[in-house]
Structure formats: C-alpha cells, structure tokens
Amino acid sequence: MTLAVVVGSLYCYMIYYNLEKWKGYIDGFLPLVMVGIAMLVMAGVMFYKK
To answer: What are the Cα distances from residue 24, in Å, to 16, 20, 29, 43, 47?
Structure first.
C-alpha cells in the first residue's frame, strides 16, 4: 500500500507543472489526501490488532 501511495504521489507531482492553475491545485492536493488515507488505514490496522 505504501508503494502504491508513493508511486501515485510521484505521478501527481510529475504532471503538476503541466496543468493549468486550478487543475494543478487539485492535483497537488491529491497526494496529501492519499497519504492521509493510507495513514488512517495503517493506524486502524494497528489498533485492530491490539
């Protein structure tokens, strides 16, 4: 899961500079959302295992 988030984030950052302003803003926000969701899932798994 971490590898998928890293690859997705890198892709978003690579295309960020080729987008117009509003689409670039949304694309720059997506990696933050993906990392947040991944962290919530990992925390949930750790909490559930206890």
So the answer is: 5, 6, 8, 30, 35
Question: What pTM does this model have?
Answer: 0.74
Q: Give the HSE-up count for residue 33: Cα atoms under 13 Å, Cβ half-sphere.
A: 7
Structure tokens at 25: 């803003």
CB atoms within 10 A of CB 28: 13
For residues 20-37, average pLDDT = 91
Nearest to 25 by CA among 12, 37, 34: 12
